[in-house]
Structures are given as C-alpha cells and as structure tokens.
Amino acid sequence: MTALELNLVPALCAAFDDGSLQLHYQPEVDLRNGSVPAMEAFLRWQHPDHGLLNPAQFMPVAEAAGLSEQVGRWVLQTAVAEARTWHEMASGTTIRPPRLWVNVTADQLTRPDFAVEVERLMAGRGLPPGALGLEFTEQTLGLAHIGVPRLLSHLRSFGPAVGVDGFGTWYASMSTLDVLPLDMVKIDGRFLRAMQRDLEGEAVLASIITLAHRRRLVVTAEGVDSMVIASRLAAMNCDRGAGRLFCPPVPTDDARMIALGRGRPDRRHERSGSSSHPPATVPMRPPASNRVREGRYDASRH
What we know:
This protein is α/β, with parallel strands linked by helices and 302 residues long. Helices cover 45% and strands 17% of the residues. The chain has one domain (27-43, 73-279): Alpha-Beta Barrel (TIM Barrel). It has helices spanning 3-18, 55-64, 68-90, 106-109, 114-125, 138-143, 148-157, 173-179, 189-197, 199-214, 227-235, 252-259, 268-272; strands at 21-30, 38-47, 51-53, 99-103, 132-137, 161-167, 184-187, 218-221, 240-241.
C-alpha cells in the first residue's frame, strides 16, 4: 500500500463504530406504473478529509488490511437492520416497503457459515419473506463451488430473494438462467449503451428480457439516464429501471421517505455528499410510454 493508503487504515477501522461507514440506497422503479418495488444498498464511506468515498476508492485498502470480511458482515447486518426499520415504519399502514437488495461478494458466498449468518440475521430481526434480496455477480456464481444451486435454494427457503447483478457481463450468462434458482436479473448498463448504438444491440437486449421472462424472472435495467431509454425499455417489457433519471443512491433518511411512498429526495445529495437538503415531494414517475403488454408473467409478485 502507498503511504496515503496506509493512512486510511486507522480511520477505516474506526468507521465501523463512528458512523462514517454508511449505506446509501437507490430505488428501482417499475416501468409500468412508477412505483418503487425495490431498492439497492450501496456502500459509502464519509471520510473526514476526503469526503464521500465509494468502494472502489477504499475497498482495496480494506482487502490489503484484512478488513474486507468485516466490511461484508457490516453491510449485510446494516442492510437487514434497515429493512426491518422500513417494515416497522410501515406497520399499521397499507404500505408494502420495497425489497432491499444487497450485493454479496465471492468471499462471503464461499464462507461455510454464510447461509447460517443470513438465516440468523433475518430471524433475529423478524424480517418477512422477500424483504431482503441477495445479489451476486455472474462471475461470483461461476467461480464459486459446485454446490451453488443447492446453496441458493437453501437461502431462498428461509426468505431472501436471489438475483444476478450485471447480467450479461460474463461468459456463462445464458446458462445461468437455466441452472440457478433465481428471482431477478439485473442487466448491465453496457447493454443499454449498445441498444442506443444499433439495432443489433437492441435485439440482444430484447432477447435477454424475453428469455428471463420465460423463466419467470423480474428484469431490472441499470444505468437508465434518459427518458428515451426508459421508454424503449418499457416497450420491450423490461420490468424495472434504476439510474440517475429516477434517483441516484441517497442517504438513509431520504431512502426511508421513498420506502414509505412519500416522494424522492433532492438530486443534489449525490453531488454534495451531504444529507442536509430536505426531501422533495416529487413522486417517482414512469416513462411516458409505460404501457407494458400484460401476459402470464406477473412481476408484481416479486
């Protein structure tokens, strides 16, 4: 590690307790009706000198310092606690809080006690089935041990949904849908860029969506940054979209407002790294052409 990176280690060790390690949350918007059926947790570190850092800026330091496992446990524990908070806040109302998706690393997945840890956390917080979702990259699933399908089935048996993040970025993409018990696939933003370039790119994206729906999976597109893209995705029957068009990852207080259906926060949060701006009351809005053809596939069940 460089001298600068070495200097980050003591502060990172302290971040687990001093509140500077945080989760931010990004809504996933239903392209048919503009509702928010799910949100994804993103790790952030509010460093006292360097400002708001994303994982790419500090996780290499955590790995070199032997802290990556501790970070993974902190993320999972914090996400489960926050999902419980959403359900407590919605108690006594007709609101159904969004599912909270959490990214899981290969190191976590291959730990012998991972499933036990997830089951213990969910039972301890009294989370209802489906309140939590676990996301794995294709590479993580492909490089893990041969018992992955059985492990994912075991995980799903006590409540969490299971999804693939960045779908289509690894060579095993299509076979993933056939051999793994999944609830959701999240399409990588590069497919959206390819869709904008030519008809071939659009055809590939459409085929992925069709294939996933045949297996009764929810399809979410990442990196939606324009109304044109959102409308084209809706026309292709893509279920959900996430990206800066709708809302960037936001701090906890703003995420709770969204989870309770009270609007979305001011977009200045991501630029400033501050949570001082009050949440706006602008609702999540679907794209103009949001009339997705209804069929036997019912994404609202997930």
